[in-house]
Amino acid sequence: MKKILLIVLISLQHIYTQAQCNNLIVKTPKNSNISACTNGGHTPAQVQQADTYSRTFAITVFEAGTSNYNCHAHAWHVSEGGNKVWIDNFSPISGNLNNLNPYWTDGSYFLTAYTNQNNVNNLKVFYGSTSSATDHSAITTSTVNTYISKMGAG
User: Is residue 153 part of a domain?
Assistant: First the structure.
């Protein structure tokens, strides 16, 4: 019974998340399409839990947790003056696993090896993964091992 309940809860969360996705398209600086959603579909309780968890790290918190936008949207879109949307590397709109790739394949940005020794401000960093739960985007600062990012719903 517990397995069935867990599957039902996961399915309901998936449906809720997909219902929040309104087939938005944002543009890279070179005008390529990136699929986005109005929000991440997290409940207020989930946002609060993620926010509380995020604050357990040795970080400076600039803004309370929200489901309005995430790390990918912050690094690639919001930090460049775009509106707050939710962008995942896996797009629920198109089913595309590499939704973020146009940022660097259309010439808007270029790929380079990054090391902490660079100490350069405002580089976009993407940690790719086949799971949207473990991929991440951030922006570098001039301080070694210090990045600016958005922690999912946190």
Answer: no
